[in-house]
Amino acid sequence: MLGELQKIKETFDKDLESCVDLNSINLFRAGLIGKKGRLTEIIKNISSLNREEKVKVGSLVNELKHEIELGVKARIKALSRTGASGDSIDVTMPGVASRIGRKHPLTVILKEIVDIFEDMGFGVVEGPEIETEYYNFEALNIPKDHPSREAFDTFYIEGTYLLRSHTSPVQVRFMEENKPPFRIIVPGRVYRPDATDASHSFMFHQVEGLMVGEDISLADLKGVLEIFSKRLFGKATRMRFRPHFFPFTEPSAEVDISCIICGGAGCRVCSNKGWLEVLGAGMVNPKVFKYVKYGHEKYTGFAFGMGVERIAMLKYGIDDIRLFFENDFRFLRQF
Amino acid sequence: MKFTYSWIKRYIDLKATPKEISDSLTMAGLEVVSIKKIGGDYLFEAEVTTNRPDCLGIIGIARELSAIFNKDLKLPSTEIKPSYMVRHKGDFSVSVIDKNACPRYTARIALNIRVAPSPEWLMVHIESIGLRPVNNIVDITNFCLFEFGQPLHAFDLDKLKGNRIIVRAARKGETIVTIDDARRTLDEDTLVIADEERPVAIAGIMGGIDTEVTDATKNILLESAYFEPSVIRRAARKLALKSESSYRFEREVAWDNVKRCSDRAILLIAEFAKGKISAKFFDKSKNPLKEKLITLSGKRVNKILGVDIPLDFMKGSLECLGFDVAVNKDTLCVSTNSLRKDIKEDIDLIEEIARLYGYDKIPSRIPKELITNHRADESGIRSKTHLAKDTMVSLGFNEVVSYSLISPVILEKLGTEIDETIIRIKNPASEEQAIMRPTLIGNLLGVASFNLNRKEALVNIFELGNIYRRQRGGFKEELYLAGVLCGTLDSGWREKHRHADFFDLKGALEELFSRLGIKTAEFNGEPRQILEGSSSCGIYINEKCIGLLGELRSEYLDRFDLKERLFIFEINFSAILDDINLRRHFSAIPKYPSIKRDISFVVDEKISSARIMQVIRSEASALIKEIRLFDKYDGGHIPPGKKSLAYSIEYRSNDRTLTDDEVNSLHSNIINTLRSELGAQAREK
Ligand SMILES: [Zn+2]
Known about the structure:
The structure holds two protein chains of two kinds. By secondary structure, chain A is of the alpha+beta class. Chain A has helices at residues 2-17, 22-33, 38-45, 51-82, 105-119, 133-136, 169-177, 218-233, 286-291, 308-316, 323-326, 329-332, and strands spanning 123-124, 130-132, 156-158, 161-163, 182-191, 203-213, 239-246, 249-258, 275-284, 300-307. Chain A has a seven-stranded mixed β-sheet with strand order 1-5-6-10-9-8-7. In chain A, a hairpin with a 2-residue loop joins strand 7 and strand 8 (249-258). In chain A, helix 1 (2-17) packs parallel to helix 4 and helix 2 (22-33) runs antiparallel to helix 4 (51-82). The radius of gyration of chain A is 39 Å and the shape is rod-shaped. Chain A starts with a helix and ends with a helix. Chain B is an alpha+beta fold. Chain B has five domains: 2-69, Phenylalanyl-tRNA Synthetase, Chain B, domain 1 (2-Layer Sandwich), CATH 3.30.56; 82-285, Phenylalanyl-trna Synthetase, Chain B, domain 3 (Phenylalanyl-tRNA Synthetase, Chain B, domain 3, 3-Layer(bba) Sandwich), CATH 3.50.40.10; 293-361, Phenylalanyl-tRNA Synthetase, Chain B, domain 1; 381-579, BirA Bifunctional Protein, domain 2, CATH 3.30.930; 595-682, 2-Layer Sandwich (Alpha-Beta Plaits), CATH 3.30.70.380. Chain B contains 19 helices and 32 strands. In chain B, strands 19, 22, 23, 24, 25, 26, 27 and 28 form an eight-stranded mixed β-sheet that branches. Chain B has a five-stranded mixed β-sheet with strand order 4-15-6-14-7. Chain B has a five-stranded mixed β-sheet with strand order 5-8-11-12-13. The radius of gyration of chain B is 41 Å and the shape is elongated. Classes of the chains: A alpha+beta, B alpha+beta. The structure holds zinc ion (ZN). Zinc ion binds next to loops of chain A.
């Protein structure tokens, strides 16, 4: 009897290990401590032993029984962890996951742009897309029948109502309601009846910036835009201000950044100039301040504007503006 | 504006290379867009901004270069020697009827000219900028136009009827054949130069063919004028006719150049066409331009630019640009002149100084002024739209951005009536972009169709953008959120693929509302016309209908070239902005455990899930924390007209641990109530 017990004890670990599922564990357990199990049989025969033997075998049996229960429990737990089958899996098979969607690249780039300016304390302001001639042109020093209007072909709705051709009207609306100092940016859709091609669209997005105070200078404008261009396009980006003409700013500038493709050496994207035009900017024309009834010469300020699609096209290397509005999944899923 | 290296060198003694010239002009605001080597010369093309008509003449560009490189500007002589002059015996007069449209008109006569080919140097200059040499008279007027930016016109004097030039508005229906051999019908909006009988030129735009200079011409009348820019602009637009002349008149020519350029041309004519100049110079001027004094404070210059430019530099720069400058302590007194009509205020001078100082020398500075962040998303609209977009994306939807201008065909397909609330563009570039979208659905169906037809298995898209309608005499721009779900849900090799359906989309919206802190969204009620009646509903928040959800009716599928069952939603996002709650308030983690019990029963098919939930909740609502439908089954052994539903109910008390007995009794009460209220029959599991 003791020999039999010894045998059970010796092979128990190995036998248990060979059980790879719940069923075989149960069978194994039943084979030991079930109704007709080997241990059960021993217990049944204990009464035939003498007293001394009874004590010895009895305690051994109890010990073993406890060990078996614990072992079986632990094995079941272990099996449930590795998966009931215990088979190894092909870890190179693709994972099973639900895919998240993608934000539109214009949303992504717009957020990047807005975040940079928000970090510099600019607040976001929005305005209507359906505007009047007054806000879109006159108050921005673009008189009727003036050649400067030529740059702003416009969709009209009726009378003096039109679709804004830039986000600048929001500047005027904001200044009518607020006194300096302030700094704001204005993102939004704008419309121009351009023939649509790879680089023109009748609808696109702009971000306009405006900062006005008692001591704001062209140097401040350069500082702010330098931070912006380095953050958006990388630390190595250089910036260049070229004098230009806009009716609502003076002095005005077109702002170029060093080509992000070739770094300035000249390539196809920058037409071998080494520079890419990305922004229009300047000091707010005092005539605009006059329209919003700010005191003469008390305030100075700067304004700037950029096309969101153009920035996204440069940053992501997109060569056709129409892709933004076609919404092809093969395009959208790249961002 | 085209010009050549050799032409520029007529007025300024430059050593700079073409590349240096191009770069420095560009950095001074006159962007050179191309340089081409032509023989031994270089052809430049510059983009002249509308404020700088002075640079539409090569002397103007030379003046810029003289200021940039600090070199003298040599202007051509305009002094007419007495030996060129004769007395013209004929009697001739000029009358300007419309003095507002033509504030200055000058004319002079040249007699006994010999029309012949131009001298070599003149032909070369003219050809180098792309013009075709015609004869010495025409070439000289062209040369002077490009030299000064002042258009001239020469008439064959002997072909003018009567002895009078009249500047007047055209009469309605009057016609003229212009030198391009086209007959043009005029009206009162167009200013003409006429003789006693007919128009002989469209003022500032193009001359007439009848009076043009030919090889047989003996005597000419040379016109040089200042026409009101807006008058020329309007006429050019109306006639759809543009010329080098109209381009310059529209941008305003310089008052003083009118005579100067005429003098220059007549001298060249005397020299190269051997003509004699009539001593009489007709000059009909409304009122000569008054010079104005601008006071410019050096302090203000430096304040606006953020630099420290010495007064001497300012004075020197302005003088190089042709201004008379006097210094008075810290201020400059600058007289304006007609060559630079864009200079009217001190700010205009500040720009000139900045350009010549060099924008690149202006330092970068971080604004030191302490400025508050104005109205930073007061309404929370930006955080709300961001959260909605983030949530939709994390639910697997792809964001699309589509045009706000759409074709009326899209509305026809949607069965949307094009009534007075629809906004139409008066001058659309094409009918495709004629309507401001009153819904996002049409565009989304287009995008779905586009992608499904390119073999995408699943289209799950949304757009958050404005829609536009007319409203009470004004216009309404409202943010809408809309989405489409169509195709096969496929999570990979393990699970079976299946078609996306109503409940997938509803589930996404439930999650969205939960994320937006909206607890009261309900889905029921009448759907809209484009949706299947049997599988769609309205979306309500606090009993206000804010959107719709459901399956697109099959006839609409065909119209948008769609084949599979498709589900859409549209929500008026502006209308729910106030319901969106971004504030989060922590509730303590429950102290006592919950107990779950399942319940499964057969009930009449017509009884809604909402009704069943309501009945369950009516029993022991305080202790029920959650009711979840986890199975629905019909067919098989379930009798027709019935369905089998299984709910899991979670019970919990906030102040004690519930006992099994307590929960069992609550649970059997619920089963009893379901039976008595709804005729539900409990099923054994
Ligand atoms: Zn490059």
